[in-house]
Design goal:
Keywords: Signal. This is Fe/B12 periplasmic-binding domain-containing protein. Belongs to the bacterial solute-binding protein 8 family. InterPro entries: ABC_Transporter_SBP, ABC_transptr_periplasmic_BD. The chain is α/β, with parallel strands linked by helices and about 325 residues long. It folds into two domains: about 170 residues, Rossmann fold; about 130 residues, Rossmann fold (3-Layer(aba) Sandwich), CATH 3.40.50.1980. Helix content is about 35%, strand content about 15%. It is built from twelve helices and twelve strands. Helix 6 runs antiparallel to helix 7 and helix 8 crosses helix 12. It is globular, with a radius of gyration of 22 Å.
Amino acid sequence: MKISVIKGWVGVCLLLPGLAACGTSEPAPSRSTAATRPSDAVVDTCGTTLRVSEPPKRAIALEQNATEIMLSLGLADRMAGASYQTDPVLPALAADYKKVPVLADRYANHEATLAKEPDFLYSTLASAYADEAAGPRAGWKHLDVPAYLSVHDCENPEQSPREVRFDAIFDEIEDIATIFGVRQRGEKVVAGLQARLDRAVHAIPDGIDADLMWYYSGTTTPYIAGHGGLPSTVGELAGLDNAFDDIPQKWPEGNWEDIAERDPEVIVLADLTRGGKGDSAEAKKKFLRSHPVTSRLRAVRENRFIVVPGSAMDPSVRSVSLVEELSKGLAELYG
């Protein structure tokens, strides 16, 4: 059964000074009133409230997902640097990306980041704020540099939602647009992604009864999608079961004997560009067809593979393409 997509995201709140009578005709002074001006952008990020008094001019995106969200919002001229490119930048963003200084192939360390005199830091991954990377957000707060972290990868996992939803991805884009004073751009980007998401879901053939195995990486020890990650949500939108949705981890380690016992009908292959063993979709197919256990899987015997970009499996501006490629693959198999 296909699940219809409902636009559920809401705009980012801007906190304005409260006016409390408190028994008098004058506003009662408060710490929140004194600390927040009407022009401040105020957003919550993984248990931290960021107040940005004016749009940043020297922002640093600490990894590629953050970089691409900023570039999608037309913020290349506000970026003092970017780092950790894992994939070729989206073609539509490549020209703007060339305008941004690249600080490091992987994470820039604290000294290299500080040397750029940033007025805002942004990452979708908590690892960017590790001691050996840019350094903890609390340290940047002491330097009066706001540091934003995606809700999908909070330092404290309890502060992250148990399931990745497109609403939260769109909210994050809205957050960044609000911080940089380009809310209309944010609304336009989100509206475009929402329209693509709706089209992709509606293009999925009806009446498909199949379970999917989302195979991300690894040959000796395969990493597959469990419950709560983006693949689980995308399968739900498509009306299809995740063969390993009973495992309460987003990316658990699997084993081929268990996979053979469950024998999923369709295998969704992450096509990764990083060049490791078994990373590309073609390498995964070759392995699955040659391994004595996996070669007997019905999905392998019947060539029921769907290839999706591995970079789209993380919450980002690329995530809608995961639904688009799944929709296209299902149409080819079942249309």
